[in-house]
Each structure stands twice: as C-alpha cells, then as structure tokens.
C-alpha cells in the first residue's frame, strides 16, 4: 500500500509494495526534486516583501491577517491573491503559521522559529544569505554542472567569464550583497563557537581572522575576551567596507602571499572555498604566522558525514554542491580529507568539536 499525509515529504511505501507502487514513489521523488527550487524562490519572495518583518512590527509579534500584511507591503496595489498563494506554500513548509481566529474571520498568520530568521534587522538573521544564494549571478553557475563534468573548469567562471572574487571586486552592488551574507552567517556561527569553545580563547593574546570579511566575527570574540588584540584580514576591497570595531584592526592583503603573525589564526568558511593544493598553501602560511609550540589554528567549517543524521548533515552535503557552483574548485570535506589536508599543511594534531550550527570547529596544532 502507498500512503502519505498532507505534510509528508514523500509517499511511504510498505515493504511488500509491488512495482507499480515503487514507480509511484519514484515519480513523487523526481517531481519533488525537480521543483525543489520553489522553496528557495518562495523564501526569497518572503524576504523581499519583508513579510516576517511586517508580522513582527505590525502585530508586535502576534499573528495578523493577510490584508494587514498586504497593506504594509511597499506597493500601491499589492495582489493579495498572489500573496495568499505564497503564504499557503510557506505555511505548508512551516515557515509561517496560519490559524482561524476563535470567533471567526480572516486567517491569522504568525511567525515560527524559522521565519524569525527572516527578519531583516534581527540580530541573528539569514535574510541576506537567502538574497545572495538566490541572486541571478549565483544561480547561473548551477546550470554549468554538466559542462564542468564534461570539460572540467569552474562553474562560476563558465557562467560569468571570471571567478567570483574578481566578479565581486568589479561589482560593488554584488560585493555588498556578498559581504552582507557573510556577515549574517558569521553572527550565527560565532554565537555557536562562543558557546562551545569557551576555554579556547582564554590564552590567546592576538587573533587573526583570515578571510574575516568586514570583521564581525573577530569583533564578537574581542568583545567577549577584551584582552585579545583582533586582526581582521581580507582582500583590500573587502576590508575597505569594514566598519570600525573596538580592539580590532583591519588589514588588507592576500592569504596566498602571507598572513599577519599572531598567537592563533581563525578561519570561518574559508578553506572550503579552495582546492586541496590551495588549502595547503594557506595552511603553510598559517604555520609561518604562529609559534610552533603555542600557536594554533581554529577552523570553522563543515565536516561531511554521509551517514550522519543530525539536522545539518544533509545541508552539509548540499553545501558541497554550492562550492561547485560558486568556488574555485572548493569543496566540503570528510574528516579523513581534513586530516590529510592538515598534515600536508603542517598541522599533524587536531580535534573536531561539534557546535550547534552547520559548521564544526577543527582545532589544529603544528606539533
């Protein structure tokens, strides 16, 4: 027998299912995967329309009606029929709630823990990341995967004629979208790091955040540990947009040339952007920048576990494809791959610390 409730992702097939039932399940799976982009587009729509922000501000966190949402959308004549269909989809996806008021009347739409991450001005928000990942410039390379398999090369370069870093440096609007996305994920990651790595920063006097973007992550570390001198190190066009933070200096440069000296080096979502040879070059420069006996590197990156079952394991696998689309031969790695990379880069000793987010901490030492 084939069954499935309204909110099931796939049809459930009993162990004694016949070929017709198995084919029906297969058809359902293919349709679901084929149209999976609709999830991203609906999320992007919600962020662009600021639906979560409208509910949060207009209703002071309490559910409000569709007409109230429509009234607050930045448009003189919003189409409420379209809005209703978008909301129906997002409610089914558990991004928003919908409930009929006890005394009757219009359906009331409310926030969930997921939609609170869509608030543009929320301290912890993924709204900028949603806008970046669904930007036309970043969706175009996904269409180049087959060409990459046939010919090799870099998907982003096939789509745009240059790599993402060169594209960003020559496109101020995209550069801002990219930096905003990195900054919002840094806040979420650093909160998880600070919660799980409390003893890791205590003995550090100077900390370099390699590829630190506009400096938000290292600023949070310095705020919690004021004795640390923070250095935010990134490409010149990136640090040029960085705001001032107490205890943090911004340094422009190229990690493939050299890295500022420090007691410890912090790298969040950096090494997954690069192939193994490039990562080894970066790690060797990190090794030169720290003391042999007391120095360490703190890598915050994904560790792929194909058979893992925590809430982020599937997303880590997805991010490996994101790296194919956007990075210069970047990839997510298994622990075995990380171990090999660290050893060749001059860091034979390491430990992995699981934290409550997409990434993990990989703490590595030169001896």
Describe this structure in words.
This protein is an alpha/beta fold and 367 residues long. Helices cover 45% and strands 16% of the residues. It contains 16 helices and 14 strands. It has helices at 19-34, 37-49, 51-58, 66-72, 80-92, 127-133, 136-139, 145-151, 155-160, 164-169, 172-196, 216-224, 236-239, 276-289, 313-326, 335-345, and strands at residues 2-3, 12-13, 64-65, 96-99, 108-111, 206-210, 229-234, 248-252, 264-268, 296-301, 303-304, 333-334, 349-354, 360-365. It has a seven-stranded mixed sheet with strand order 8-7-6-9-10-14-13, sandwiched between helices. The protein has a three-stranded antiparallel sheet with strand order 3-5-4. Strand 11, helix 15 and strand 12 (333-334) form a beta-alpha-beta unit. Helix 11 (172-196) runs parallel beside helix 12 and helix 14 crosses helix 16 (335-345). It is globular. The mean pLDDT is 93.
Secondary structure: elements and pairs:
Elements lengths: L1 E2 L8 E2 L5 H16 L2 H13 L1 H8 L5 E2 H7 L7 H13 L3 E4 L8 E4 L15 H7 L2 H4 L5 H7 L3 H6 L3 H6 L2 H25 L9 E5 L5 H9 L4 E6 L1 H4 L8 E5 L11 E5 L7 H14 L6 E6 L1 E2 L8 H14 L6 E2 H11 L3 E6 L5 E6 L2
Parallel strand pairs: 6-7, 6-9, 7-8, 9-10, 11-12
Antiparallel strand pairs: 1-2, 3-5, 4-5, 10-14, 13-14
Helix pairs in contact: 6-11, 11-12, 14-16
